[in-house]
Each structure stands twice: as C-alpha cells, then as structure tokens.
Specification:
The structure is a homodimer of 323-residue chains. With 323 residues, the first copy, chain A, is α/β, with parallel strands linked by helices. Chain A contains 9 helices and 13 strands. A 5-stranded mixed beta sheet of chain A has the order 3-2-1-4-8, sandwiched between helices. In chain A, strands 11-10-9-12-13 form a 5-stranded mixed beta sheet, with helices on both faces. Chain A has a 3-stranded antiparallel beta sheet with strand order 5-6-7. The longest helix of chain A has 25 residues. The model of chain A has no long low-confidence stretch (mean pLDDT 94). At the A-B interface, helix 7 of A face helix 8 of B.
Amino acid sequence: MEQEQQKPYVIGLDLGGTNSVFGIVDRRGSIIATTSVKTQEQNDVEVYVDNCCTALKKIIEEVGGIEKIQAMGIGAPDANYYTGIIDNPANLPWKGEIPLAKMFSDRLGIPVALTNDANAAAIGEMAYGAAKGMKNFIMITLGTGVGSGIVVNGQVVYGSDGFAGELGHVIVDKSSEARSCGCGRKGCLETYCSATGVARTAQMIVSSSERPTLLRNIPLDEITSKDVAIAASQGDEVAKEIFEFTGKILGEACADFAAFSSPEAFIFFGGLTKAGDLLMDPIKKAYDENVLFLYKNKAQMIVSELDDAGAAVLGASALGWEL
Amino acid sequence: MEQEQQKPYVIGLDLGGTNSVFGIVDRRGSIIATTSVKTQEQNDVEVYVDNCCTALKKIIEEVGGIEKIQAMGIGAPDANYYTGIIDNPANLPWKGEIPLAKMFSDRLGIPVALTNDANAAAIGEMAYGAAKGMKNFIMITLGTGVGSGIVVNGQVVYGSDGFAGELGHVIVDKSSEARSCGCGRKGCLETYCSATGVARTAQMIVSSSERPTLLRNIPLDEITSKDVAIAASQGDEVAKEIFEFTGKILGEACADFAAFSSPEAFIFFGGLTKAGDLLMDPIKKAYDENVLFLYKNKAQMIVSELDDAGAAVLGASALGWEL
C-alpha cells in the first residue's frame, strides 16, 4: 500500500478539438515524456482510445512501465468529474455521453479521472504553480471562451452535478445593448473578456469611430485579440483602451466573485494574459474600486506561472495525484 | 472520549442588537430550555458575558449540568468563524475586536464557536431543516439586509479570511439609477431584495405615480415590507408588482450564483418569505428564464422549514455539533 503511494509518475491528457496531447509527469511537475494523437476526424471513439493507448504504451515503457504510473487525469471540454463522462461535446467528433475515464481505465489498468479544462488548470496551479499551498482561490482562464476553476477549502468546487464554476457565464451586462453569447443568453462575461470578446470590442470600436489606429490596417472581421495586444504594445491608444475596457469588466466581475468565496488570489491563465499589465492593471484597478470593504487589499491578482505549452497537460496530470 | 461524543445537548446563542436569546437544544433540534439577556445598553462586554453566564447556569442546571452540554454556537453580526472574534460590530454596543467565543469558553469550560447569522442559518438548515442531507446549497436570508450562507461539499464556505458569503453585496444594478447601499457602494442586491429594499421600492412607486393602491393609506416614509405583503395579499396590484420586481431581481441574481457552485437548492429565510408565492413565484420564474442551460431544472427554490422564533437559536446551536 505504501509502495503504491510512492509511484513516481502520473499521466496527463489535454484533450482538444484538434489534438490530444499526453504527458508523463513527475511529482515536481516536470513533463518527462510526451506524445500526441489527432482528435479531429477520429469519429469512432473506441478506435481513438485504442490509438491513444498504443501511442501511450511507447512512452510508458520509456519511463519503466505502467507500474510506475499512479493514475491518469484528463482535461477536456464538457467533462464531468463526478461521472467520468464527456457529455455531448460541442467541439469534439463524438456525440452523446462518452465514458472516457472508464474507457482509458479499462485499457490501462490504472485509475483515471477527468474534469474540464479550467478545473484542471486550477488543480495544476495548486500542484505545481502559483497556488501551491493555497486553500481558497479562483482560476480564470481567458481563451476562446472564459472558464473558471474555483477552489474552496483546498477542493475544486464541482457543485451538486459536477458542472459548478462557469463564471464565464455570469451576466455582466443587463442593458439592451448586451452582447449575444454562444450559450443562447445575453451579456455573459465571456462575450467581453475572452479572446473572441476582445476581438468583438475591437471590431465595434474600429467600425464605429474614425479614430486613427493600427488596427485599421487589418480587415475588420479578421482583427484578433493578438492583433490588439501587438498594437497596444506599440502604444496604439485605441488598442490600449480596448484592454482597459476588457480589464474593467473583468475586475468588476471578480469583485462580485469575492463576495462568494473570498479567495486569497485570482489566477489568470490563457492567451489574453500575454497582454501583461495592459490587461492586469485595469483588472486590479476595477477590482480595488468595486470590491466590498471587507475584502479590500486581500486577494492577489496574478498571472499563472505554468508555461503555456505544458500547462494543460500538467493541470490534467495533477488530477491524477488526487486519485 | 466516546462518552464525550454522546453529550445530548448544545447551547445556541442568537446575539441581536436588542436581545441575546439562548437555547439548549437536543440532537433532534428541539429547544428544551431557553433564556435571554438584554444586549442593548450593556456597554461593558465583560459584564454582559458575566450576566449571560449567570442566566445560562440556571437553565444548564435544569437539563442536568454542564457535563450534558457538548458545545456552544453563537450567531452574531460581523462574526468571524476562524478567529472567534466579533469585529467592530455596527449594531452592538461594543467597539473593536471582541473575542466572544473565547470569553464564553473560558467561563463555561466548553468549546464555543461563532459565525455570522446567515452562516448559522445554513448550518441549522443542514442539521435540522430543509437542507438535511444536502452537500451543496445556498441559504439566502431576507431581513433588514440580505445575507447568505453558502455550503459546498457539506462545508460552510468561509473563504480565506472568514468573511466569504456576502451575496447581499453582489452588484445587480450598474446603471446610473442604482440605489445607494449602506456599504458605501451602489446597486447591491440588498438595496432591492431586503425588507428595507422592498420598502424603498414601494415608496418610489407610490410617490412617482398616481396609481390607486392601499399603500397610499400609509404615510409614505412609514411604508414597510409588511405593509406591502398585506396589501398584496388583499389583491392590491401595485403591491403585487413590488414583489414581482423584487423576486425578478433575486431570481436573476440566483441564476448567476448557480454558475458559481451549482447548488441543489436555494433556501430562503427571513421576514420577506412570509409573502409566500407572491415572492417565490417571481423568483422561480426569473431563475428559470435566466439560468445557464447546464443548470436548468436542477436547483430547488424553497422556503426554510425552521420556525422563525427559534430558527436563529437553532442555527447557532447547530454550530456546536460541529465542534
């Protein structure tokens, strides 16, 4: 039993719509072996899992065999930790309820758990990153959408059904001009503070004013959040205002989140955080100006320390240590 | 040790600005003895605690002595569970940091813990009320203010500092007409959905229109939420609209709270819930219309089963069972 707890490695799987990236990770959070399999066009999930296990077996042998592996964690969209099921994933090639944790566990003979990307990121941050030793924090992932992983008393909040922690879908604009969200509602945080939301803001500002900006050099519907970040870093005033607008909305939302769980930190992760202080300064400013007096000057606002390439795999792998 | 766990009673203290009400409570949630002491004008907290213990000792003897008592729980404003301190209470006669848990524990020789009123209500609901067996729910107290007690994985969420769960101070109106809140900010949920908030709504509607309503029989600045409930129950259209307005704001707010912890129930407690379906129907309607598809038709919206007179004492006492 004691020896079981000493197994040196876990497997992490970052399951994306295009690729499935595997890493074997040690207790320090170093990825010591890696492989990947295409997700796209793998229409039969049984064949897909078989292909994954074939690829995995090679790197498992490299590190000394399956008896060195404690468990496997999967970070995936629409994943439910309680059931181990991926439920009708919008961006994966499979329909219905996919019991992916069990499918991997049956083939590999080790415990397997899955959770959504943002929860995996939060667990990774606790195991290897900026949240080491923290019991109460909120992870906000700023990618194509806005995701969140909430940790209370050292545990990820999964709620009654496994789907808790969708702070990207808190309503931040109730006005008639609120933006439509992919979820079918209007005014969600994600419509403003995701990479897509920043691009929408840019397109609106560029098309509705005559102000000079580097962003006019790009066809309107091709402007991305990355373009805005590049322009802002070159001193473009319009681009800087776009980040101020985005950060203000996010900081105000975080002030409300504090009233829920009074976290010791908000940790931001994902593409948008590359904008650095252009985004973080307005977040901090809006947070300080809006948070209830009880919480003032308490929560840190920090950018994830995990490097982008490996972070999703690391996060998923960290789930393995909890099994 | 085993015998210690078999002690049949806990003490609950509901510490209010006017009175301090004590109850000795058994494991079923029956209050078997009760006493009270004035809080108001007890300017020396040492004398106050001495008076409390003198009153308590009588009822402790009645139930068989202190060796029958497992612990004591206190529900109080501005109370911090982690520290056992009441911190600069606005509505109590003492200033500074009052280590009330320790003061009672030293005198009585039993473990004592304290928490704020809304958290105590949530714990009481878990121990004796509608939340028996629930691991994830949100208690909303609708009194002079709006309080909340959030339970995740069977534990009250205290956050990093002991002050988590102030959902009455989530901002629900960012417009220029947002109402001023006692916390110094504008647009807090509490400015609309507390008893005071309902009275404000009534005063606004009565003074800004000519519509006939029973509420005109009352001097404008004396209209209370109770008056509105009485008028509504008599079929007064304006009064019913006031509850619809209140319930809509509260239901929309709860839809956002679901994105945080996906609770299996929202439990409403306090004076305003006496309005019954006049309030609950619009809450449910707004919740259903606004909640993210993931959470639809999941959470129950229920009114506390604990009777008003004893509920605060019961809630506080339930904290004792956790020690």
